[in-house]
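Long-time lurker. I teach an intro course on protein structure, and each term I like to show students one example going from raw sequence to a predicted 3D structure in token notation. This year I'd like something fresh instead of my usual example. Would anyone be willing to generate the tokens for the chain below so I can use it in lecture? Attribution to the forum is fine with me.
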Amino acid sequence: MQQDHNNFYDETDADDGWVSRSSRKRHSHSLRDIGKKIVSLSESEFNRIPFGDHDSFREACLNAKRLKPRSEELRREFLHIESLMRTLDENEVAAINTALEAIQSKCVAGNAVFHKLEELRDNLIREGIPAINRLIGEHPEYDRQKLRNLTTKAQAEMGRPDGDRRFYRELFKYLRDSVRTPSENAE
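-- Reply from a regular --
Happy to contribute to a lecture. Here you go:
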């Protein structure tokens, strides 16, 4: 008696509480990845994670932060963190994951601003006075004289082979410190 393979798979997919081993492994790996992301956060970011009443989970994450990277102790601690996360309900895991996503999106936005400032600095050095005039037209809060001095000195540095880029860095710092982010403008 031959069984139709298509019907067999349809029968086993019925929702009777059965969860495949692969599905459980994927869930475990995702919990472990969340734990690794939590451990890799800075102290201020770590404090923004909603641990709730789960002090043992928080302590395990803090302990993992102190362990040596790529060590057997750290691997076992991640397994412990994973097992503690399995005791959390879905809403708590979702809240932790949402907090992690918010922290990561803030980092991505910060990186975008950083790259725009680098591009602006390089454009100022490459084009000189015309780029400074355009920038002052768009952002009158910049000091034209300071921009000209820093740009001229950075241009001179670029021509030297010694590798000292002091004014190159100072120009970036001036642009970074003088620019107002959209969140500061809203205040």
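Some talking points for your students: The radius of gyration is 27 Å. Residues 21-88 form one domain.
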